[in-house]
Amino acid sequence: MFGKMIAKNLVMAGEAAPLFDNPSNYNLQYENVSFQASDGVNLKGWLIKGDDDKVIIQSHFGLYCCRAGYTNDIKRIAKGYPTDVKFLRQAKYLNDAGYSVLMFDMRNHGESDPAMDGFASYGPEEAKDIIASVDFISNHSVYKNANIGLFSICMGQGASVSAYGREDGLKNYSNIKCMISVQPLDYAHFIDKMKLPGFLLKRADRFIKKNTDFDYINNTWRPYVKDVTVPTLIIQNKNDGFLDKDFVDGVYNDLQVEKEMMWIEIPDKKNQGFNRMAAYDWLGTHSEPVLKWFNKYM
To answer: What is the pTM of this model?
Structure first.
């Protein structure tokens, strides 16, 4: 019982990531869209309409998140953050600057299909979703000639990096011009920073291994950082409760492209989870560095 409960909080989203917001709440023109990943998983999202020549694809963090962000509107063991984290705020300032924006739910989140029996992979499997989103825009009747920028948040950045490491992946799309990578983290470092009691971690690990053959420790996006081919800005909160500075520095150092490291310092919150989530909330109210990076390359 405890193993399942802990495991669900580590690697499973399901009902923990409901869709709770809508572009119409921000006076944004949009359409509901759906597209399919290479393994047949159906993905749903919003295509927010701006200029035809530039599109931002925003991907989200894992487990408690969907394309709209994070909400406290459902029952949880504990709050992940004091308030809702609304990702449509980014879409609003991006759209006001002329960008079209594709926001979609990765597999096992929001309205998209389940996959791998509901287990999120922290990037390697979700890479198929990132590729599908880029392919969707690249073949869209209106946006097929548009430049694309990737706004990749936590698991979304792991998925984007993994997608650069695949033979059928993002390195094949010359229309991708740049990426913003928010708070890089893989499963092994997440678990290490959780500091769970050993007996709970063992029970969770037994449940995971019993229910999926995915190797969370060794199957990570980290080796593919060197394969990224576009200018990349990393944004990281210094007070992130899950921060391993050597890990983030290593990601930055391994990028073989034009790059920039942006350390932000958000005042300490109640706990380590709040301190990580604070950076996601920060994105919605700090448009300048985001727009500066995308405007430079797009």
So the answer is: 0.96
